[in-house]
From TrEMBL:
A Pfam family hit: Glt_symporter
Listed name of the protein: Sodium/glutamate symporter
Keywords carried by this UniProt record: Membrane, Transmembrane, Transmembrane helix
PANTHER family named in the record: SLR0625 PROTEIN, SODIUM_GLUTAMATE SYMPORTER
Transmembrane regions listed in the UniProt entry: 6-25, 37-57, 69-88, 95-119, 125-145, 157-176
Example of a GO MF term: glutamate:sodium symporter activity
GO CC terms: membrane
Gene Ontology BP terms: L-glutamate transmembrane transport
Organism expressing this protein natively: Aliarcobacter cryaerophilus
Alphabetized InterPro entries for the sequence: GltS
Length: 177
């Protein structure tokens, strides 16, 4: 059996998942210490519950992606609005060196991802999904590129793989520091 949520109920479910994540991060020291974001904490609980319900009772949940593009657009616009070029100039030489190091690591991420995918005999684009698309871009970029890679390039499960890789990168980044 399948439960299908329309856009309204999907939004309500997302808010509930976010509130669960907020509660968990406030109550569990480990999550606070390693800077695990509230949506990730709540999302892992929701994914676990959803998996258990499916495995034990055969019920699956389908959510609407109708509002996804609009909310992602709002999110990324809000990031751009907070840009401050005066602060960027204050960074000076140190910031420029940091930019070069980060750029080098982005190239290394892609090289490792594509090389491993090729060595395993899978599409090199899957290596990019596990590379800078998700590890540098995060969940938003994984979502945007995931749908493009699924529809334009026929890579099945690109969205799911992207979300998994972005979550892995986020959690490992929090643990490593």
């Amino acid at each position: 059996m399948n439960f299908t949520f329309n856009a309204y109920y999907t939004l309500i479910a997302a808010v509930i998942v976010l509130l669960i994540g907020k509660f968990l991060v406030n109550k569990i020291e480990f999550l606070r210490k390693y800077n695990i974001p509230e949506p990730v904490a709540g999302g892992l609980v929701a994914a676990t519950i959803s998996t258990l319900v499916y495995n034990f009772w055969g019920y699956s949940i389908t959510t609407s992606s109708e509002l996804q593009t609009s909310f992602m657009l709002i999110f990324f616009i809000s990031i751009g609005l907070s840009a401050n070029f005066a602060k960027l100039k204050e960074g000076g030489k140190s910031l420029f060196i940091f930019l070069l190091v980060v750029s080098a690591f982005i190239i290394i991420q892609n090289f490792v991802g594509i090389s491993l995918a090729t060595a395993l005999g899978i599409d090199p684009l899957i290596g990019l999904i596990a590379g800078s698309i998700t590890l540098t871009g995060g969940h938003g970029t994984a979502g945007a590129w995931g749908s493009i890679l699924e529809t334009k390039y026929g890579i099945e499960g690109a969205m799911g793989l992207g979300m998994a890789a972005a979550t892995f990168g986020l959690v490992m980044g929090g643990i490593i520091g």
